[in-house]
Write a structure and sequence with these properties.
single chain, mainly alpha, two-stranded antiparallel ribbon, 7 helices, globular
Length: 162
């Protein structure tokens, strides 16, 4: 209730200015991690990946806009690209393959009409050539997800670049 006793409406989505601040903060964190090894170590020590993974679980929540989602994924990509320990933590402890598989399903709007059959939600039974193309945003999110999946499934011991 406000000062006059009227009930306030619950806020289901963050204000635009809040989203903008979050996006700028995520961009800054990504830049700092990319260019500062001490920050990479501290991010691992502080278990930053756990917080990011928690927010990634909210992929169906409309509260977070595209840019927040994109930079959460970019941050996850950087953490897994730069730190083998974070890569292993996401893959094993945080069930990263399942988490990111769910992300990919949500991003591409996939549903599973049969056990081994996928379709785009709302387009079940539509021939692939008649499906509308993915949006630029869907494509960018899918690319980030696939990059992270590569990081957490690539075995650095079996393949050496030389």
């Amino acid at each position: 209730e406000d000062e006059e006793g009227a009930e306030k409406e619950p806020c289901s989505a963050l204000e635009n200015s809040d989203q903008e601040v979050i996006v700028e903060a995520l961009k800054s964190i990504c830049n700092i991690l990319l260019h500062n090894e001490t920050a990479q170590v501290r991010a691992a020590e502080l278990q930053l990946i756990k917080g990011v993974a928690e927010r990634l679980k909210q992929c169906y929540d409309p509260t977070w806009g595209y840019e927040v989602h994109f930079f959460d994924l970019r941050l996850t990509f950087l953490l897994t690209a730069l730190r083998l320990d974070v890569r292993a933590q996401l893959a094993q402890e945080l069930h990263g393959i399942r988490l990111l598989g769910n992300q990919l399903d949500a991003t591409l709007g996939l549903c599973w009409p049969e056990t081994l059959e996928t379709a785009r939600a709302g387009f079940e039974g539509t021939p692939p050539e008649e499906l509308p193309p993915l949006s630029r945003e869907q494509t960018e999110l899918a690319v980030e997800i696939l990059k992270i999946l590569f990081n957490i499934t690539f075995n650095t011991n079996k393949c050496k670049v030389g």
